[in-house]
Amino acid sequence: MSAQWSEEQIRMLINERKNGNEEYHRTPNRNKRNFWEDIANEINRVNNTNYFTGEDCNKKFLALTRAYYTARAYKKAVAEANAEALLEGSDNTETNEGLKAKVKKKRSLVGEHYYEEFSTEFWKEPGARHSTTLSNTPGPLETGSDTSSSPHKQTKSSRPVTPSTETPVVL
């Protein structure tokens, strides 16, 4: 059974991950489990619980980053559809009937809730962060990544890359 997260617990998870970003990237992959366990222990301590695990924290944070990327792709699609409607001479782009048909991206309310904070892409390795404009959408293989050096990114290798056990892939 997966853990139920309150807004306060999610906020704490985000803050702990954000404040520990440099430590996270200095930690070898084989020890990242300890990083997430430390966060889980802190959330459990503050909330007087014992049911959050490091794996729960890692999975929840990955879900939040995926929601952010989904919201970003949706915002980009809406902006492009609005721009196209303006070029076509439509006078009301927000309620344009064709707008919904043109926007084929999924909307993420969770991603929109945390969009501003996640738009800094604070979880990426320092120095590897990119400008986060709406035109920078992730490729299909990097949408669920927690780091900029994702095992899901395409490489020049002709064989698929197997993700590490530290970064669970949720289908």
UniProtKB/TrEMBL annotation:
InterPro entries named in the record: Myb_DNA-bind_4 (IPR044822)
Domain Myb/SANT-like DNA-binding as annotated: residue spans: 3-75
Ranges of Polar residues composition bias in the record: 130-171
Region (Disordered) location: 86-106, 126-171
Domain of life where this protein originates: Eukaryota
Identification of the protein by name: Myb/SANT-like DNA-binding domain-containing protein
Source species of the chain: Glomus cerebriforme
